[in-house]
Design brief:
CATH class: Alpha Beta
Strand content: 5-15%
Shape: globular
Bound molecules: zinc ion
Number of strands: 11
Largest sheet: 6 strands, parallel
Distance between the termini: 10 Å
CATH topology: TIM Barrel
Amino acid sequence: MQSGLPNRIEKNKVPVFDGHNDFLLRLLSAPEMRESIWLLGGGAGHLDLPRMRAGEFAGGFFAIHVPSPREDEASFRGKVMDNSVCEMLPPPLKVGYAQQTALAMAGHLFWMERVSRGAFSICRSAGEVRAAMAAGSIAAVMHMEGAEAIDTDLDALYVLHEMGLRSIAPVWSRPNAFGHGVPFGFPASPDTGPGLTEAGKALVRACNELKIIVDLSHLNEKGFDDVAANSDAPLVATHSNAHAVTPSTRNLTDRQLAIVREAKGLVGVNFGTVFLRPDGRRSTKTTLEPVLRHFDYLIDQLGEDHVGFGSDFDGATIPESIRDAAGLPRLIDGMREHGYSEELIAKLAHQNWLRLMERTFGE
Ligand code: ZN
């Protein structure tokens, strides 16, 4: 099996396949501006077509994350501002609202492909991802963060799979019919509540059958254990870091990392400063040092074949040392200066994600 894209690896030209972004949320919030946001770019946020190309952002998981309605969001945000443990979670979403919003976001993703004239491709298999990357087309995989748009009969799951959905996080940080998301807290344990419901366990089994990745990010510890006990696929946290370095509820404890290692899974390093910095602060004034510290720690715990990128671009406060997708080559350079070999950098930047997709989706 060919591994990665060796011909394209040259200094400052390492393609990145990334485990998580929230670009579709930006389009959802300003649909009338989507053409200039996506095609022309510049300014706000972290992602757009020009900056992806400038930064060798070669592909990634694009999240359909249905936001809580504004009034719920406002009360919830107020509770997490001070970085302390947040007992409160936003209330569950109604399925009708979630389905309508999720379809709108999927529509934006298909629109992005249509107007990109070959520069951006929605991929449904590991082979399609490899082919798109080799052709210089950004390889997008449809991901859903929080399964509220799926009824507990799971009928919508089959529709979404036909549309191209290949990765799903049963919960975001809020409760739904499938389980309980982990509240944002620092410093705090991820053991914050009950695990998956019976419907949640059925969702995991259906995802195994359909070869859809089950994403552990945003689950609490009991929910994590329930996925591990019910899934026969590699365990994946698309955008979570090491709890031992940054004790956020969103990060994974050494015990959880040992379970991911056992299952030959993958953890994508999240660039959100609240998940990176040992002090858990939300601040762009953050160097590459904590990013590299999480890579070091996760490589030590999981092995160098089981760590990737999980930027959280357009969904988190990112260090100014990276700033946006165009800044990815600065991180790659930082890895070189840190002593990582070109071979290791290629694994972290895209090869590990490609192999994980091959193992989960099939060829
Ligand atoms: Zn997230």
